[in-house]
Design brief:
Largest interface: A-B, 29 and 32 residues
Number of helices of chain B: 17
Radius of gyration of chain B: 22 Å
Radius of gyration of chain A: 20 Å
Strand order of the largest sheet of chain A: 1-2
Largest sheet of chain A: 2 strands, parallel
Number of helices of chain A: 11
Oligomer: heterodimer
Number of domains of chain A: 1
Distance between the termini of chain A: 50 Å
Largest sheet of chain B: 5 strands, mixed
Strand content of chain A: under 5%
Amino acid sequence: MAVILELAVQGAQMFSVLLLAPLLIGFVRKVKARLVRRQGPSVIQPYRDLVRLMRKEVVLADNASWLFRVTPYLIFAATWVAAALVPTFATGLEFSWAADLIVIVALLGSARFFQALAGMDVGTSFGGIGASREVMIASLAEPAMLLIVFSLALVAGATQLSTVAAFMGSPEVGLRVSLGMSLIALVMVAIAENARIPVDNPATHLELTMVHEAMILEYSGRHLAMIELASFLKLLLYMSLISCVFLPWGLGSAGTGAKSLAIGAAAYLGKLAVLAILLAVFETAVAKMRVFRVPDFLGAALMLALLGTLLLFVSRSL
Amino acid sequence: MPALADLIEADRQVEHHAPWPRAVVAPKLWNLAVEQLANGRWNLLGLWGEPDKVHMALLDEALDIGVISLDCRGGRYPSVGQHHPPALRLERAAADLFGLAPQGLPDTRRWLDHGQWDVSHPLAARPGGPPAAASYRFLVAEGESLHQIAVGPVHAGIIEPGHFRFTAGGETVVRLEERLGYVHKGIEGLMAGAAIDRAAKLAGRTSGDSTVAYSLAFARAVEAALGVTPPPRATWLRALMAELERLANHLGDIGAICNDAAFAIMHAHCGVLRERALRAADAAFGHRLMRDRILPGGTASDLNEAGADAIRSLVAEIRRRFPHLVELYDNTASLQDRTVATGRLKVELARQYAAGGYVGRASGRDFDARRTPGYAPYDQLTFDVPVLQEGDVNARVWIRVREVEQSLSLVEQILGRLPAGPIHIDLAVAGSAAPREGMALVEGFRGDILAWLRIGEDGTIERCHLRDPSWFQWPLLEAAIEGNIVADFPLCNKSFNCSYSGHDL
């Protein structure tokens, strides 16, 4: 019976991230629209877009290979699994043994690998431009991400997210400079990974400036719906990750009863809303940077993460 | 070193051509003029064809304007473009429409004619059959690991159609080639034989965002040909409309340039101000873009007190809110990082191409048709023409900012001194012994628009040519983007904001 209950909680987490992700994007878009005094579409517009895309027929290029058709499902599956593993409202769920930071990085990395391949598959110039820019960004963002993982692992003594979250929620964390650096680095990586301003502009119509959008220009119908949903999930994933590691307050844990889970869920929604508003405000206040400034931006993230790790070693040896 | 006036006087001067002279010249003098263009002493204002003639409007060092024409025996004439590149596309367009063959033209590919018309050379004395379909050969750029990017004519955003062919080495643009002509509407063909009022409507539809400037250019050319002067109140109202149009377009552009750097808040605020300008125009003149409000002989609508109040409150609002936006633009480092030093246009190129408007003025070309040659009522108004030397996207934004300020001051001056009286006089068009020709140079928001026309004995338009400022700005965009990165093209393109429709005719 307990196993079934635990599986149910884990299942609830898996489906809640899937259901929440479009709402989060809708909310970010709404806040951005309000900030520039526009009415903006309703917060549930992303759901409508997904339904619309699912109903539309798929237009495929004549020379599209099997890879092009399979990739959207691969990306979606990998991202969904990654997003479902990150603790949202509770830690210590049934599958939490798999919720390892390195697993998550690897899942997202594989998704990106296939996306870049598919972008080049049909041989359009935009797919190639998008793929090359995406890989350039990824080649800098992934090392930074791994260094952040190292810092966290050194502090918490594990790469498993439930353990990390539990440690971060405990009083023994104290105030650590390297954690602050990791937080900043993680936010920068999250911005780059999710193709947000100033690295990429998710709302642009200018095909020459696109990164993520250029790669998926050739996709349509349900394929596009899968990719879009995966990108919604990815934003949710990073926000969950930031809130679970750096804002672990209110997190419930498995087996502590419905009340603590409900508190965890409410706290999670609150954290998401705050992060979404911060993202919208930040995106409104800055312009997009030149493509070749992105390495500087991510280089800063990499250096911060590295400094954080080094500081840990230095402070340990003292 | 000859002056343009001497050159024109030396040959067969045409009688009814106003306000500047026109002469039919011998090939020798034609070549002499081309030489002056090629060595940069004179500026080319326009080049257009007729079935058996080719005309060239020139601006000399003393800022005198004149037109020289050459009879094309057998449809041939010595090419201007081979010595003076700004004429290239104009000659290619004239070749497509009239079948005139410029001798020595280095680029003989078709320009406006994409092989989709039922005829070839539709405006020639004897149009030919449909042209054989030929593929368009883009210029090549050779080198290791260069790749081509084809963009358009249909774009991801809702903008006008045009094709851009980039050759890039990685992200760096090695060559950009434009292909235009997708919105060819046959304005010149429709103009031929049209009554004046219909032709005025056509002129106002050449480029929608410059409808006031085009109507004004056309009306002034007709009035020059007929030798009439519109009533003073009409002249002042026209200037008021022209400045409102400039305000609305510049505000829209400033926001749109920032939006291309993903700085949406500027776009939103400028969009609000632009909308206010359009609504004030609607309240004052009965049409948001003031289309068909300017007619040959005067204006179509008068300004009442309520309309003047609407414009006054518009000016007050822009004066209150615009400085904050300028400050926001200037203080946002991430935005400055995108616009400063991006898409630099060299001063020499702007001079060679006689680039008008903000494109020329941001690259040191101090020219404004409102001042030179000047027209009423601007001779009685005080305004500055801002000029910068940098030639980058940032400079083109700043020229627009300064021009918005100047336009606000002009609107205030006009409202304060608007003379009373009638707004329209009837034109006695019909019944003349000889064809009469007129031309006008008017400053639209993009730059100087040239209108040239000939009114026949029966009072209809025989031939009318409207030259958009974009003819001399599009080629410069190709030069400005060189060495920049592909992702900066939209920003450069928006800072030029050339007209597709006005160029494609």
